[in-house]
Amino acid sequence: MKKLNIAIVGLGNIGSYLYKYLNDNKKILTKKNNCLPVIKYVSAKNKIKKRKIKIKKKQWLNNFLDATKIKEVDLIVELIGGSEGPAKKLVFDALKNKKHVVTANKALIAKYGDQLSKIAEKNRVNLEFEASVCGGVPIIRSLKESLIANKISKIYGILNGTSNYILSSMDKKSKNFQEVLSIAKKKGYAESNPSADLDGDDVSAKLKILSSLCFNSFINNNIYVEGIKDIDTIDINNANKLGYKIKLLGFAELLNNSIYQRVHPTLVKKDSYVAGIDGVLNAVIINGKPVGQNIIQGEGAGPAATTSALISDISSILRGNIKFPFSVSSKERKKLKFKTIEERLFSAYLRFEVVDKPGVLSNITNIFSKNKVSIKRLVQNPYKNKKISSIIVVTHKSKNKYLIKILNEVATKNFIKKKPKLIRIDEN
Predict the structure, then answer these.
(1) pLDDT for 99-141, tens place per residue?
(2) 386 annotated active-site
(3) Which candidate in 88, 144, 206, 245 is catalytic?
(4) Domain ranges, ordered by start, for the chain
(5) Which CATH architecture has domain 139-299?
């Protein structure tokens, strides 16, 4: 029986879960893959930390980089995290020393994936990263294998469970952002420092990887990113009244051989598919030919979901499959032109908190008219016992640059009480 010797580097929640799963399911994995997975070595920053797994003394490596040099190690699973430091050194060295690599590290792949894939191809080893995007959702393998016959024009969806939990909880529980964030931290849905999730950086890294796979291109770092920290319960309630839900979405589109990549809060129709994706779930929608529209959803994070993705990658290597990390050879990948969203057409929701006095509304509508942005719907809501009014404007499609210009111009007026708000609308 063939066997594959594995070194796991990083024994946090995911690494420990993977270790236990591989040991507990060794027989069935061997039967399914006709190859025996053997955890030969492990390494972690804190060797004496209490863990729910029993590790043999002979399995421990004092220096994690030794895994890249030991001849009998066939595969290294990198679960350190981060785009720099130990994780970067480990993966680069492993591939250079002709070791297969499986990783859940989206930051590393988004930043160095192009370089790493060339090394893997040169040395005829695998670099697998299913777990780097959407946890247990098999989106990467679907793009690399199941949808290989398709010419993909667009991919978008909910790619971050933390932000989706916060937005859907604000909607259902009528709690403000900070209240829901506190609950998310207590439940383990948000890190102690969740800035990458809330600012859109997590989605940005994932979208770069997906975009590269979809369009057979090198990773493009030109991406518009906007997070959810400014979303208010007022906007959640207004969206509901207008027939929408607010979601943090990532979009990648190929138009005229140019790529558009953007991450931002989006108003989606209540009856749309993504509107119904709540909690920590992820959902990815792919538009391609001949398949049409394809939707994949599932748990986006957590030890169990991530381990499912890691095992999928390990199993592929157990079967002896040598594949291009990004589906096609680096020689065949393209450098696509990037288009900013400034010329992109959007319908938009704009909210202005203003002094409730004559002439304010006409002043605002004149600014819209001057910038040639057509108003589809306008609602004015005076606040009780306050000399303040909320003006909600829903526009027809207009270039993003004109919408931003209006926002900035109105913000300078002395009748404005709070920073104006703009949320783009997806009409799909």
Answers:
(1) 999 999 999 999 999 999 999 999 999 999 999 998 888 999 9
(2) no
(3) 206
(4) 3-132, 139-299, 342-426
(5) 2-Layer Sandwich (3.30)
